[in-house]
Design a protein that fits this description.
The complex is a heterodimer of chains A (314) and B (323). Chain A has 314 residues and is mostly helical. Chain A is 72% helix and 0% strand. In chain A, helix 5 packs across helix 14 and helix 7 runs antiparallel to helix 10. Chain B is built from twelve helices and no strands. In chain B, helix 4 packs antiparallel against helix 9, helix 6 crosses helix 7 and helix 6 packs across helix 9. Classes of the chains: A mainly alpha (314), B mainly alpha (323). At the A-B interface, helix 7, helix 8, helix 12 and helix 14 of A face helix 1, helix 5, helix 6, helix 9 and helix 10 of B.
């Protein structure tokens, strides 16, 4: 308003004369004060600020290290000592001994290795299968997609625990069977998600541009579609590992998973529950580390999902 | 809508058929017959007689057809370990117990989960919200068998011992095992429900928070509609929709949970029979119960999906449920 009023004043020309432009500092205006972040840098920053998620990540790394190094340092997980059965925690046996006098601490280290291995290996296989199936289905589209998705519909509807129990009954119990049965149907959910993402992304202009420039289908899938679906896939992967670890524990607990001379969190829990309500350390040592690990994966997964979702960023 | 429902029904039927075929093939892959597992003491003539009795002397394909035909007539086969008891009889006798347990857990889980989720969202970042987060986290990371054992120890053993010391009675408020009167059902139902409470609380909270920030809620409030009506009619009603889908998927989780809980609390339900049949290598019982569970879980998920389709007409238009 005031500018307009001044303009309408009669001495306008004199005012203009007084005006001296401020010299422009080209170098200064080019300077970028705020860090420019790529999508991933931003996501990592948000993630790093999330205390719960970082605690989860640190715990996961610790448990993984324990699972790798622990069994090397304490190799005698099968050594029985019938003179020292069901001992309470002491200096010699940090977490006591079980029914056959085996050291619970050593078995816990081996159990950590077994359980984590099942979780990581099974879900990594599911990851690869799911990406391949979903990627192909979403990218090829048309009739192939319809058929592939109907198959997924059926596979997803089969209750997973039925597959788990059935296969444990028919095949010999052990780590291999368990991983196999987790992978029979486990990839379907991820495949469906990847397919949805790819379907949405392939409508984008840059994919069309790549096509026009003569990129092959495989190249478009690899260079454009998959990198852009990495976020949700990563979240799905993180969240599915506790599921696989939990499935092992469930099966071993009802007596189907990992047979006893080997150690896993599940069969240690079962052994502990059998001694219940005496010798509580047998039950609680695997129970606590098991629950904390599942918790850590969930916290980290939640944090990762929030960090990768641009809508959640402030 | 018709097309969507028809498609879902078709998928459900194919799923059940696939499970039946898969179960049949897998069970036949086990070397030998159930009566001939390496022990040669048996009189071959008696063995042949037994196998003929169970139809095991027929060619595989014929056995498959006979099995399918039997299933259609509600005949799930005969148990091997429980002599002369048919699988159907076992199902009829123990499934009601499991259903009872499952329904209690489901009702408790849904009610508690919804209440917690709604309260948490209405008092965002206050005490109740933090409490609901803790419940959700515990429910997700502590499996039912750990929680069950813990509660048995604290409430069943320590609490009862304490009661006994003070009041000199043997009365147990939370008995450790069996399935008789109401107080026997409290602990198992709670343990079984915790997983559902956790997932429903989480889902309801985020769905509710989502709805609260919507424009139509602000509009309703600025129009001067009473707070109560806004919460009930605009917020809760709309926030409930996505949560309904979870209830269908809960059935599978409750079945899995019941395997553990029934064993833990010695409840004579179907889950206990299922687990025992697997460990006892009672193939016909495992097979029958696997198929029964598959039919049960698939059809209840289907039912919820169809109901959901009527509740929220959007999904049948887009054809696929959005996640």
């Amino acid at each position: 308003m005031s500018v307009l009023q001044e303009r309408s004043l009669p001495g306008e020309k004199e005012l203009v004369k007084d005006f001296t432009p401020v010299p422009r500092d080209l170098a200064a205006s080019q300077r970028i004060n705020r860090l420019s972040l790529t999508y991933w840098q931003g996501a990592m920053m948000t993630l790093r600020k999330n205390k719960a998620a970082m605690t989860g990540l640190v715990f996961i790394i610790l448990v993984v290290l324990v699972g790798i190094i622990g069994p090397i340092l304490y190799p005698n997980y099968q050594k029985t000592n019938l003179l020292a059965t069901l001992q309470a925690p002491s200096e010699k046996h940090w977490l006591g001994t079980d029914l056959l006098g085996r050291d619970t601490f050593t078995r816990l280290l081996w159990g950590t290795r077994t359980s984590l291995m099942i979780g990581f290996v099974a879900e990594t296989i599911n990851l690869v299968l799911g990406i391949l199936y979903g990627g192909i289905s979403g990218y090829v589209g048309g009739k192939v997609d319809v058929i592939m998705m109907r198959i997924i519909d059926v596979i997803v509807s089969i209750p997973q625990m039925i597959i788990l129990i059935l296969l444990q009954t028919v095949m010999s119990n052990g780590v291999g069977t368990l991983i196999f049965s987790l992978c029979v149907t486990g990839w379907a959910g991820l495949a469906r998600m990847v397919r949805g993402q790819v379907m949405a992304l392939r409508e984008n202009e840059y994919v069309f541009a790549a096509q026009v420039l003569g990129a092959s289908r495989w190249e478009i899938l690899r260079r454009h579609l998959l990198p852009n679906t990495v976020g949700p896939i990563l979240v799905n992967y993180t969240m599915s590992i506790p599921g696989a670890i939990g499935a092992e524990a469930f099966l071993s607990y009802i007596g189907l998973g990992i047979p006893v001379p080997a150690a896993s969190w599940g069969n240690m829990l079962q052994e502990g529950a059998n001694q219940f309500p005496g010798s509580l350390w047998l039950f609680f040592s695997p129970a606590i580390i098991f629950a904390l690990t599942i918790l850590a994966f969930n916290l980290f997964g939640d944090g990762l999902r929030d960090a990768l979702d641009p809508k959640m960023r402030k | 809508m018709k097309k969507y429902i028809l498609g879902r029904v078709l998928v459900a039927f194919v799923t059940i058929f696939v499970v039946i075929t898969l179960t049949f093939i897998l069970m036949r892959l086990i070397p030998g017959t159930p009566f001939n597992t390496g022990n040669t003491n048996m009189d071959p003539e008696a063995l042949a007689q037994l196998e003929a009795n169970y139809g095991l002397d027929q060619p595989i394909f014929r056995q498959y057809l006979i099995y399918l035909n039997n299933l259609l007539h509600g005949n799930f086969g005969t148990s091997i370990t429980y002599t002369n008891r048919s699988v159907t009889e076992i199902i009829l006798r123990s499934f009601p117990v499991s259903l009872d347990l499952g329904l209690r857990a489901m009702i408790f889980g849904v009610v508690a989960g919804l209440l917690l989720g709604i309260e948490a969202a209405l008092h965002h970042n206050q005490f109740i919200d933090r409490f609901s987060t803790v419940v959700a986290i515990v429910g997700i990371s502590v499996p039912s068998f750990v929680l069950g054992t813990l509660l048995q120890l604290v409430l069943g053993v320590w609490f009862s011992g304490w009661i006994k010391d003070i009041f000199h009675t043997d009365f147990q408020l939370f008995p450790l095992a069996r399935w008789e009167s109401f107080r026997y059902t409290i602990l198992p139902s709670f343990v079984l429900a915790l997983g559902s409470i956790a997932s429903i609380t989480r889902m309801m909270r985020s769905s509710m928070l989502d709805v609260i920030s919507q424009d139509y809620v602000k509009t309703a409030r600025s129009k001067g509609i009473s707070e109560r009506t806004v919460v009930w009619k605009h917020e809760i009603r709309n926030a409930l929709l996505p949560v309904v889908t979870i209830i269908g998927r809960m059935v599978g989780g409750l079945c899995t949970g019941s395997f553990v809980v029934e064993n833990l609390f010695a409840i004579p339900g179907l889950g206990k029979y299922y687990v025992n049949s697997v460990t006892a290598r009672d193939y016909t019982l495992t097979m029958g119960l696997t198929i029964f569970y598959a039919i049960f879980i698939v059809s209840s998920t289907l039912l919820v999906d169809i109901v959901y389709c009527f509740v929220d007409p959007r999904i049948s238009l887009t054809g696929r449920r959005k996640r």
